[in-house]
Each structure stands twice: as structure tokens, then as C-alpha cells.
Write a structure and sequence with these properties.
With about 675 residues, this protein is mainly β. It has a 22-stranded antiparallel barrel. The chain has a five-stranded mixed sheet with strand order 1-6-7-4-5. It is globular and about 65 Å long. It has one domain: TonB-dependent receptor, beta-barrel domain (Maltoporin, Chain A, Beta Barrel). Strand 26 and strand 27 form a beta hairpin.
């Protein structure tokens, strides 16, 4: 969709909203990631963001939106490209999902590739910390991030409802708009949404050079950090007594600067089509059956000073069938079948991996037994994964090769309510992941890592053993949750320097890095809690959070790179009548536990604040908000960003940013 037409569609939707004919859409805030049975208590540690909490934490990327969640940091490649890092694991060890189905893009291939999702168009985000390989495959060996929308309605929508968001931010003069409209009867439901977000170079608390068209200037802006993203989607469902069947189509566009180079930009295009249906209350041994299928066409072009360069394509399809059996006493469970396939290609100067084809077929079982003191779970998954190099039509260094892997994973968990206000959870999982195409077959220059990457075609299945234990106390509004975890890899596939140097076609020397299996261990703790301080006219809560991860290459005894340091944060949240306010901070300790040759990262504290006001305007509910990020305008660099190592000083975190916005629901 052209930008002019998209802005027109958003304007029309906003006009419809302003007309007062809509009612606030409701999406149940039920945690579904990590438990296919849909029960309220989840044994694995899960965080959820929705409603005002998501609105006040939303950033332009998925990674930065989640970055202050306990156990979650981000890859931060500037303000436009950032994937979640969960318990120190990133890339293809963290599965990004869309409504529980595959989310196909190229974000795990390179740090400068953005996730093809904008948080402004999301209803809810769920983060499963710890292995999710049982349900979602080996690429979720470290966790899963599920981005949830209502583009395929699953329940009846009576009448017409809608929501609209308008926003402006000072750090990059961002302007954003989004609108959603839903309607239906007891027999059908329809959904449409659209968004547009644009901004210039981001202001930072330090002078930085920027060279464009041969002219160098020095400004307090992060060079080449401007972006323009837009998208639209439509979907609908036929509803019947025992379920639904629906279709949706989504288009997403993102044109952004990569910040690693002053004049390199990326033009991303992604189209996704999805089918989903469910039959419930079938009787007999089969209680329900759920089907999900999707196809994604993804492409992005990297431009240098406006001239097209490397083109990345990733086209994928996925199918998931889940059957829930009738309870056998207190035992309930599901059997699932999953199939995925994708074709990847890269053409141009930065084609560091060959054309490839990956096919996955899997079966999994998840069972849960209720007891008088809690519940226990047990499950297993078996996969067959084919990863084929198809060579390259223009690069002779890539040859056709084929590998087949058969990963198998098993997991067990328990939840024990050992006192009225206390719960104890424990999880044990053996998870296996097949290597990705680039881990096997890479051979070329990769600007994002500043290295010539070499794959390991003989690499085996990556295996890990994960142990997680947690305790939770809850009394009214007061809560405390503590988790401790350890993950040990017998053959963690790490990208390590070889000490060699190779020359690009332009004669530029690059250090050689190779994908090498090593023994590795990740261990850490996570803490979160809420204390109600006041409840007399004015409600006042204190939210606390902290986490720490320690990752070690057990083969060499050295630290693993890009691990978040100790982090501690607190937020005071107040409300009185229609007013709401919050102020808080997040402190990151100095990270000097780095491998030889890496730079330590200085510690820092970032303050933030927000003010909200709710009001009714006829049938409309309005939420006005003002938010300040990095209120002290502190200069800070992310320890989990590769740019902190490969381009030191070039990509600090954004400076002080004031965001003003309005969310309207009808």
C-alpha cells in the first residue's frame, strides 16, 4: 500500500472513531504462551504486557519494548533494529511468534535486520523465559516471545468497536498514528487496522560525526537513525456453535537507517497471510482441534547512498495442528503436529550465506496432571529438520550441501501450592536445536559483526539441559516472585575469532570468525515484586525488579560476549481518580566480565516518568499520556549491543525523550 493511501486509510478510520459510533474492543488478557491447555496457572515463568502497561513501555522495536522486563534485554542495533535477548540467549535461540505461529523475517540472521513487527500494532506480548522448544521447536531453546493481535477474531463481536492511537516524540520528532476497527454479529466478525510511524535521526547526549555525500558534520544526533514504518491488516472469521474459521492478510513496510554506516539504509517489505480455526466441545476422546497455517513473503534491500546493494529474501510457510484430548481423571493434554519450510537467499556484496532451504516436521505431546497441592506437567517433542545449501548463482565459494537433523526435547515441571499465599515452581528440560543455515554454510563478509564469518558444515545438534526453580508469594496487591536458572550446553555453537584476517573484494581486511561448538553455561536470577504503599483515595504502589546473568565458555573458561550486567529497577505508580503517574529508574552495573579483546561497558542509571489522564467524551474513552524516557539525559551504551564492540561510541542509547499521546477507545 502506498504511504499516501495508507495515511488516508488511517485518517478515515480515525474520523470514524471520532464520530462516536465505536465501542472499546476487548481482548482477554489470558496468558497462553507456554501452556496449550489455556489454564490460568503457568508452571514456566511468563511475563505479559498489554493495555496501559504496554502503551507506556512501547518503543519502536520489539527488543527495546521488552528490554526492562526481568530476564530480558535486547540486541540494540540503534533505535530501528532490536531483538529480545532472554536470559543471555539471542538470535535463533529465541523464537519470535505471531499468535503462536511462525514469524518469518531475517532478524535472526543479522543484528541490523529489524523484526517485521511494530509494537504500535500489537494488542499483547507474552514472554516465556526458559526453554520453549517443547512447543515451538529448537529455535525456542532459550525462550519465546509471542506477539498477539486479534486480526483473526476468535469470539463473537457484537456491533462495532475500535481504538485509535496518536503520538509525538521529541528525541526524533516522531509522529505515529494507528487505528483499529472491529465489528460483527454472532455469525461473523471482521477486523481492520493500520498504522504509520515516522521519525528523524535520534537525539543523543554526545556530539557525533555524520558523513553524507562527502560532507561531515558533528551534531548531537545518532547518524542515520531515521525511519519510516507503516502497515495495514484485515481479517475475518466465520463463527459457529463449536468454534470459528478465519483468514487474515497483513502488509508491513519499514525503511530505516542501519546506524553502523552513515549512508546505508534498509527497505523492508513483508506480507503475511494466515488461516486459523478451532473446533471445541467435540465430545468423546477428542475435546477440541485447532489449526493454524500461514505464509510470509519477506524481502529487504540494503541501499548505500541510495544505490541498491544486497537483497535478502526469506519466504516461509508454516502449519500447526493441535488436538486436545478429553481428561482422563485429572490428566489433560494435547498432541501437536507442526511443519515449517522456508527459502532464504542473499544477493550482493554482503551475501555471507548461500541460498538455502530449511524444512521442519515435528510432533509433540504435552500432558498436565492436576493434584490437590498443585499440578505436574510432562511433554516431549521429536523433529526432523533438513537444512540444505543450494549454492549461489554468482558466488563459487558456496557449494550445494545437505544436512538432516533429528532433534528431540523433553520437559517436566511442577507447581506446588505449599501455603495459602505461596507457590513453588520447578522446571527441568533437555532441549535440542538443529543448526541454522548460516551456522553451517556461512562464508563471507558480515558488516553487522564486523567480521568474515565461516560456517561449520559438520556441526551437530546443539543440546542443552535447563533447570529453573521459582517461588511466588501473593497477598492482595502485594507480590514477590523469584526465579533462579541454569542452562548448560554440551555444544553451544559460538561465533569465535580464529586470529586470521581475510580481505573483502574491495581489499578491506576483516578478522575471521568461525562458528565453533563449545561447552557453555548460563546461570542467573530474576526478581520482581509489587508493594501497595497507600490505598486511601490515592493508590500508591512500589514495583521492584532485578536480574543477573553470568555466561561462561566452559571450553576456555572465558566469559561469553554481550551479556547484560546486574540490573536493578524500581517504579512508584500512583493513581487518584482519572489521574495516573509513575516515576522510576533502571540501574545497569558496569559490565567488565567480557572475553579477551572486548571492551567493558560503563554502568549507568536511566530515569523515566509518565503522567496519564482518563476522561469520557460521549461514548468514547480517552487516555491522554505524557512519558519521559532517560529524563536525566544520561550518556549510556548497551552491553548487549554488538555495536558497542564493533563501532565504539557510535550508537549510544537515545537521550532524553518526551512522548505525548492520546489513545481513544469506543
Amino acid at each position: 500500500m502506498h504511504n499516501r493511501n495508507l495515511r488516508g486509510a488511517i485518517g478515515a478510520a480515525l474520523a470514524a472513531v471520532a464520530g462516536g459510533a465505536l465501542a472499546q474492543p476487548a481482548l482477554p488478557t489470558v496468558t497462553v504462551t507456554g501452556n496449550p491447555l489455556g489454564t490460568g496457572d503457568v508452571i514456566a515463568p511468563v511475563n505479559q504486557l498489554s493495555g496501559p502497561e504496554l502503551l507506556l513501555r512501547s518503543q519502536s522495536t520489539l527488543g527495546e519494548t521488552l528490554a526492562n522486563t526481568p530476564g530480558v534485554s535486547s540486541t540494540y542495533f540503534g533505535p530501528n533494529a532490536s531483538r529480545p535477548v532472554v536470559r543471555g540467549l539471542d538470535g535463533d535461540r529465541i523464537r519470535v511468534l505471531n499468535n503462536g505461529g511462525a514469524s518469518t523475517d531475517a532478524s535472526s540472521v543479522s543484528y541490523d535486520h529489524a523484526v517485521a513487527t511494530d509494537p504500535i500494532a500489537v494488542e499483547r506480548i507474552e514472554v516465556l523465559r526458559g526453554p520453549a522448544a517443547l512447543l515451538y521447536g529448537g529455535n525456542a531453546i532459550g525462550g519465546a516471545v509471542n506477539v498477539i493481535d486479534n486480526r483473526i477474531p476468535r469470539e463473537a463481536i457484537q456491533g462495532v468497536s475500535g481504538k485509535a492511537d496518536l503520538g509525538w516524540a521529541s528525541a526524533n520528532h516522531e509522529r505515529s498514528a494507528a487505528a483499529l476497527v472491529e465489528g460483527g454479529t454472532s455469525k461473523f466478525a471482521l477486523h481492520a487496522d493500520a498504522f504509520d510511524r515516522s521519525g528523524g535521526d535520534v537525539r543523543v547526549p554526545v556530539d557525533l560525526p555524520c558523513t553524507r555525500r562527502g560532507v561531515t558534520t558533528v551534531v548531537r544526533r545518532m547518524c542515520n537513525s531515521a525511519a519510516h514504518a507503516s502497515g495495514a491488516a484485515a481479517g475475518g472469521s466465520l463463527l459457529f456453535d463449536k468454534g470459528y474459521l478465519g483468514l487474515s492478510a497483513r502488509t508491513y513496510r519499514n525503511d530505516y537507517g542501519t546506524v553502523a554506516q552513515d549512508e546505508v539504509t534498509i527497505g523492508m517489505r513483508s506480507n503475511r497471510y494466515a488461516l486459523e480455526g478451532e473446533l471445541r466441545g467435540l465430545g468423546g476422546w477428542l475435546q477440541s482441534a485447532k489449526l493454524q497455517a500461514g505464509h510470509t513473503d519477506y524481502r529487504h534491500t540494503e541501499f548505500e547512498a541510495g544505490v541498491p546493494g544486497t537483497v535478502f529474501r526469506n519466504n516461509g510457510s508454516d502449519l500447526r495442528v493441535e488436538l486436545k484430548h478429553a481428561k482422563l481423571g485429572a490428566l489433560g493434554g494435547v498432541v501437536g503436529l507442526q511443519a515449517e519450510g522456508n527459502r532464504f537467499s542473499a544477493d550482493g556484496a554482503e551475501a555471507f550465506a548461500p541460498y538455502s532451504r530449511t524444512r521442519q516436521r515435528a510432533m509433540y505431546v504435552y500432558e498436565e496432571l492436576g493434584t490437590g497441592w498443585g499440578k505436574v506437567s510432562l511433554g516431549g517433542r521429536y523433529e526432523q529438520v533438513d537444512v540444505d545449501s543450494l549454492g549461489h548463482p554468482a558466488l563459487a565459494r558456496f557449494a550445494p550441501e545437505q544436512r538432516r537433523f533429528t532433534p528431540a526435547s523433553i520437559a517436566a515441571g511442577a507447581l506446588w501450592r505449599f501455603a495459602p499465599q505461596w507457590e513453588f515452581t520447578a522446571n527441568l528440560a533437555h532441549s535440542e536445536r538443529a543448526p541454522k543455515d548460516y551456522e553451517l554454510y556461512a562464508n563471507g563478509p558480515h558488516v553487522a559483526t564486523g567480521a568474515w564469518e565461516i560456517g561449520n558444515a559438520s556441526a551437530g545438534i546443539e543440546k542443552s539441559l535447563n533447570v529453573d526453580a521459582g517461588v511466588q508469594w501473593k497477598s492482595g496487591h502485594d507480590t514477590v516472585r523469584f526465579n533462579a536458572f541454569q542452562t548448560r550446553f554440551s555444544n553451544y555453537i559460538a561465533l569465535l575469532g580464529t586470529g586470521n584476517t581475510l580481505l573483502t573484494d574491495d581489499g578491506e581486511p576483516l578478522p575471521e570468525f568461525a562458528y565453533t561448538p563449545v561447552r557453555a553455561r548460563f546461570r542467573g536470577v530474576e526478581l520482581s515484586g509489587n508493594k501497595r504503599l497507600l490505598e486511601a483515595g490515592t493508590v500508591l504502589d512500589l514495583q521492584l525488579r532485578a536480574d543477573a546473568v553470568r555466561a561462561t565458555n566452559l571450553t576456555t573458561g572465558e566469559p561469553l560476549p554481550r551479556i547484560a550486567p546486574l540490573r536493578v529497577g524500581a517504579t512508584l505508580v500512583a493513581s487518584r481518580g482519572p489521574w495516573g503517574a509513575r516515576i522510576g529508574f533502571d540501574t545497569h552495573a558496569r559490565q567488565d566480565r567480557v572475553p579477551p579483546g572486548d571492551r567493558p561497558t560503563a554502568g549507568y542509571t536511566l530515569w523515566n516518568a509518565a503522567l496519564t489522564y482518563r476522561m469520557n467524551a460521549g461514548p468514547a474513552s480517552l487516555l491522554w499520556y505524557a512519558r519521559v524516557d532517560n529524563a536525566g539525559d544520561r550518556l549510556a551504551y548497551s552491553a548487549t549491543s554488538i555495536l558497542t564492540q564493533t563501532a565504539p561510541g557510535r550508537a549510544p542509547l537515545p537521550g532524553r525523550n518526551l512522548k505525548l499521546g492520546l489513545q481513544a477507545g469506543f
